[in-house]
Amino acid sequence: MDDDHHMGPGGTVKNVVLFVGSGLGPAGVTLTRSFQEVLRKGDASVPTTLAFEPYLTATLRTRAYSSATTDAAAAASALATGKKTDNGMAAVDPESKAKAGLKTGFITTDELAGPVAAAFTSHMEHANMPAMVAGQQLTSKIDLLMGGGRTYYADKTKDWTDASYATPTNAAELEKVAKLPVLGLFADKKMDFAIDQKSGDKKQPTLLQMTKKALDLLHNDKGFFLVVEAGRIDECAYAHDAACLAHEVLALQESFDAVADLLIKTKDTACLIASDRDSGGLILSSWDPSVLKPTTTSVEAIVQKMGTMSEGSVDEKAKTQVKAATGLDLTAAELNQIKASDQAQLGSTIGSVISARAGISWSTTSDTGVDVNLYVCGDATTDVPRGNVDNTAVGVYLMKKVPSATGATTTTTTGGGMDMGGHGGHHH
Questions:
Q1: What average pLDDT does the segment 71-99 reach?
Q2: Nearest Cα to 5, choosing from 408, 378, 420?
Q3: Which end of the chain is more exposed for a tag (fewer CB within 10 A), N or C?
Q4: Model's pTM, two decimal places?
Q5: Taking 60 as the threshold, does the pLDDT of residue 101 lie above it?
Q6: In this predicted structure, what is the pLDDT of residue 3?
Q7: Which long-range contacts link 194-203 to residues 24+ away (Cβ below 8 Å)?
Q8: How far apart are CA 143 and CA 165, in angstroms?
Q9: In 102-181, which ranges are E strands?
């Protein structure tokens, strides 16, 4: 998989796929690996590691300029542009004029105007201006955008269709899309967690379905750059929801497998899996992943369902819904813990109670300063970041690899960056 006969000039590869595991720390990878073993017990053909683990090349430091721990926007900017920014500022680099014909795509399970999307697809200085990010994305002529956050595009739908974008709203409609450009908006806000995915006609596509469709549509003679964000791992962590986190990482692995298939076939694709930061401070002491196996819904969904129950006190509702979701019978002590929690912390309290049953604990409901992992495959050159590096090394690497992302072979002194805009020229 790692032969590099197909490297272009200066070690560029034809296609680059970057996966971003939002908030995925090293403990989350370990959790998912053990969880997968439990899920597939008895099947000798199952590898013990996750599909991307053989390609571990570096650990990334994630500090932002303004503090020792980073936020999503600053972390994403470092990945996108190879520069540190203050927390709260997404990428602020000017449009990079790329070589005609390079196709670009961005997929997320978060809102399509969220902080990671903003860093790669717009020039926003502050990540919490989704409506402005949504406006900029249209002018930057990205070929393919898929995710949640329909709310922020509602008043601009006509502009996108006028620009000949297909606008699928569910998995069935996405399946029918046969050409670029595409704006797929599959939820009003964030897309569902993998563990909560529904079936039926109008269902949201999975991360795998979005990735496969993107690979089909973007594949062309000149190459493509695709970013796939598993955008809600951090929210599982904030809710201290271990089963939810494991299912999100398994969905990331499925999508990676689809790209790995392409890699083996074509040998002209580099694939990276990076995390932007570690969320939740997951701690695995003497823990038992089998406790999580029966869980069928997220803590977020448990809390929502409690909200729809008209009868009963908080602890009664929690007892009913936790039993339905996880099979666990909560004890009086556990229910008291939940009862004592305020509404804002209800999710993470329920998550902590369930986690404790599996021997799992969490140190925070925000982010930590722990180094995160970088995995790279399909590139055998010395360009690949190795050892312990700053997270900006990913952006610097992408600028080397993605053909003409910064014009010819300009260095970063001009303030280039991995803006995806302007690649496709006119879509007419």
A1: 55
A2: 378
A3: C
A4: 0.89
A5: yes
A6: 42
A7: 194/244, 194/247, 194/248, 194/250, 194/251, 195/243, 195/244, 195/247, 195/248, 195/295, 195/296, 195/297, 195/298, 196/297, 196/298, 196/300, 196/301, 201/170, 201/172, 202/170, 202/172, 203/170, 203/171, 203/172
A8: 9
A9: 103-111, 144-148
Token pair recorded at residue 329: 């019978």
The residues spanned by each domain of the chain are 15-280+366-401, 289-358
- Of 355, 191, 251, 210, which is closest to residue 24 (Cα–Cα)? 251
4 is in an annotated binding site: no
Overall size of the chain counted in residues: 428
Percent over 70 (pLDDT), the chain: 80
DSSP state of 48: S
Residue 229 known to bind ligand: yes
286, 239 in Cβ contact below 8 A?
no
Any idea of the CA torsion for 378, 382, 387, 393, to the nearest 10 degrees?
Answer: -80
Flag whether 276 is marked binding.
yes
The yes-or-no verdict on residue 12 having pLDDT over 90 is: no
What residue type is assigned to position 17 of the chain? V
Tens of pLDDT, residue by residue over 281-311, are: 999 998 999 999 999 999 999 999 999 999 9
Q: CA–CA separation, 418 vs 278, rounded Å? A: 23
Q: How far apart are CA 119 and CA 60, in angstroms?
A: 18
Looking at the predicted structure, is the pLDDT value of residue 398 above 60? yes
Q: Which of 90, 3, 17, 37 is nearest to 270 (CA)?
A: 17
30 close to 284: Cβ distance less than 8 angstroms = yes
CB 105 within 8 A of CB 142: yes
Whole-number pLDDT of residue 290: 92
**Residue written as token pair 């062309």:** 220
CATH no. of 15-280+366-401: 3.40.720.10
Report helix, strand or coil for 168.
coil
pLDDT of residue 98: 41
- Residue by residue, DSSP assigns 365-379 as SSEE---EEEEEES-
